[in-house]
């Protein structure tokens, strides 16, 4: 199975499981289920390097759909405190974009920070679905 299709299937199955196992409304806002992890694409081109010392693992990230992005119609921009850090990788963004387009509440946070010389290994984005 192609990696893109496998990623989409994994995301869809995770989301379905989350919805089936949804708790009572009072507890729903406290539970988040990790459905996807990906490196941050474009770290070296945006504000990640400048903001590095301020960011911490676990910090909340905003995911913003860019359906009009001329390079990728499934683009999902990643922001930290209103500043663009980069994007979910093109190979990993299709399922997340589709759920965002449906209105599914999706959140993200910094899963890992690493001073690795490879920019693809510096920041991991963890994507969550709230229950």
UniProtKB/TrEMBL annotation:
Record-level Gene Ontology MF annotations: hydrolase activity, acting on acid anhydrides, in phosphorus-containing anhydrides; nucleic acid binding; zinc ion binding
Signal sequence annotation: 1-28
Pfam families on file: HIRAN
InterPro entries xref list: HIRAN
Transmembrane segments: none
UniProt entry keywords in alphabetical sequence: Hydrolase, Metal-binding, Signal
UniProt keyword Signal, yes or no: yes
Residue ranges of every copy of the HIRAN domain listed in the record: 33-131
Name the record gives this protein: HIRAN domain-containing protein
The organism of origin for this protein: Zoogloea ramigera
Biological classification of the source: Bacteria, Pseudomonadati, Pseudomonadota, Betaproteobacteria, Rhodocyclales
């Amino acid at each position: 199975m192609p990696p893109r299709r496998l990623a989409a299937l994994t995301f869809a199955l995770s989301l379905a499981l989350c919805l089936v196992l949804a708790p009572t409304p009072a507890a729903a806002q406290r539970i988040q289920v990790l459905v996807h992890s990906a490196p941050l694409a474009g770290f070296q081109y945006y504000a990640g390097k400048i903001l590095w010392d301020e960011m911490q693992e676990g910090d909340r990230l905003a995911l913003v759909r860019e359906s009009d992005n001329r390079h990728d119609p499934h683009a999902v921009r990643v922001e930290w405190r209103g500043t663009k850090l980069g994007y979910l990788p093109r190979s990993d963004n299709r399922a997340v974009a589709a759920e965002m387009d449906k209105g599914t509440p999706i959140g993200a946070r910094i899963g890992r920070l690493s001073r690795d010389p490879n920019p693809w290994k510096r920041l991991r984005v963890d994507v969550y679905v709230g229950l």
